Each structure stands twice: as C-alpha cells, then as structure tokens.
Amino acid sequence: MPHVEKGMAVGLFGGSFNPPHDGHALVAEIALRRLRLDQLWWIVTPGNPLKSQAGLAPLGERIERSERLIHDPRVKVTAFEAAHRIRYTADTLDLVKRRNPGVDFVWIMGADSLATFHRWQRWREIAATFPIAVIDRPGSTLAFLSSVMAKTYARARVDEDGAPRLSRMRAPAWTFIHGPRSSLSSTALRLLRDGD
C-alpha cells in the first residue's frame, strides 16, 4: 500500500486496467482536481469477478503500462490486492480502512460501472465504508438517475458543488461529477489489438 499521512484525502481508483488508457488517466485527473485529493491510488486488480478472465494481460504488464501512462506524482500505481489475495472491492476497502486510521478515503469509479454496481459483492457495504465519486463516462451520463445504487442512496447524494468536501464526509455519501469525457474503453482497445 502506498504511504499516506493522517489527515490526507486519498482517492481509491480500482480496476483491471486491461489495458490502461487515456480515459482512465482522465478519470484520475478529474478526481484529483474536483475532489481536491492529496493522492490517488490507481489499484490494478488481479481480475474482475464480474468479467471473463480470458484475454486478461498479466498483472505485471498492466502495472507497467499504468505506470507509463501516469505522469502526476500524486497518483500511486499499486497492486496490493494480489499480495493479500483479495478478489472483492468490499474486502479491499475494509483492509484499507483498518490499515490507515485517520486518512480520509473516497472510492472513485466511472459512470459506466454505476449501472452494475448493485451486482458487486456486498455493494451496500462498499457504499457504507467510504464516500463514492462517480465520474462521467460517454454513454453513461444518465446511469446515475436509473441505477439501483443511485435510487437506493438518493438521499445520500451530494451535489457536485460539494465534491471537494466528499472525502471528509461520512458514508454513505456520493456524488456524480460531470466533465470532459474520453470515448476510449479497454474492451474496444483489446478488440483492436486482437484484430491486428
């Protein structure tokens, strides 16, 4: 796990990053700026339980590509989940919380993940552990209105203007952040790569 100090505001941005691309980097940049984070942990996961593992590049390769993509020293590429044999986000957040008392964390995800968030293992526990920032993605802008998570936690939604305070809030709390969007997707990039 990257080093943090008490009182810091830290974003947790997890994914398989298979491969990482400029759209991911844009989400990280928007999160750092709009949430006023001291750090962002770019968590490269061993795999995604909701997706096929076929075509999943080796973890080391995905870490290396992520490191080449990132230029902001506040972004820390890490793969600590593999060392702890963690498969589910709820377990990741529990470990992070136990290991880092006094640090204010916020879970960051693209809006494309919001539609299926209720299928994640112990998703309500995730929402109750740390505040969540949902970053707009092409074709997903309306997901925050219709998703199970958005409906379930409608009262916990924080207006976008409150995003800079989100990491300091008690969960459940979440916001949807609009901004520049990238049409890149890992799935499309894999299809292009495999088609060559």
Automatic annotation (TrEMBL):
Its EC number is 2.7.7.18. Signal peptide: none annotated. Pathway: Cofactor biosynthesis; NAD(+) biosynthesis; deamido-NAD(+) from nicotinate D-ribonucleotide: step 1/1. It is an enzyme of class 2 (transferase). One of its GO terms (biological process) is NAD+ biosynthetic process. Keywords: ATP-binding, NAD, Nucleotide-binding, Nucleotidyltransferase, Pyridine nucleotide biosynthesis, Transferase. Catalyzes the reversible adenylation of nicotinate mononucleotide (NaMN) to nicotinic acid adenine dinucleotide (NaAD). NCBIfam families: nicotinate (nicotinamide) nucleotide adenylyltransferase, PRK00071.2-2, PRK00071.2-4. This is Probable nicotinate-nucleotide adenylyltransferase.
